[in-house]
Fold:
Amino acid sequence: MDLRERMRGVYGILDPEAKRDLDEVLAAYLMCGAKVIQLRMKHVPTRAILEEAEKVRDRCRQAGVLFVVNDRADIAALLDADGVHLGQSDIPVAAARALLPHGIVGKSTHNERQIHIAVAEGADYIGFGPVFRTSSKQNPAPTTGTKGLQEAVRTSSVPVVAIGGIALDNIKQVVATGITGAATISCVAKAWQPTDAVRSLVRAFKIA
Structure:
């Protein structure tokens, strides 16, 4: 199975800044059919990231779900994670590849120029957004809307994961652009029942 098919679906992001128990959110994603789990722990000591990442890696392996670490290629390599997701200010794709020669390297992008650079650098997939207004990032880039997302899909030769403000009321529009994955944070972490939220998102993605 190629990467596009392995990643096709809901891409769950675990973030302690979303103010929800990470174990509860992870269980919901794994139980209800997410394809990828990313652990994003900014402003947290390295030891704490390492300890949490090891637990998440083990549970993802048991469930057969891809596990990537946000920003920290060194931790991803140390734990033999499936991959790393880099931001625009992180180490270059080539440096991450040196640490993870057989791993997946993703790169966040916000415009056409960044997409071209990420693909030229050898990123395996790109994250693109924020598509809609999001509360999960401080000082986010301008929103792209689904029109911008559709252009990103046309521009990129690698899988595109949409990110930013994706929820049940707009996921069908997002999937219609041709993206491979839909990243979710707040709509699951802030849901009354995270399992119900993930189940509904996965179902909506498949229908769309």
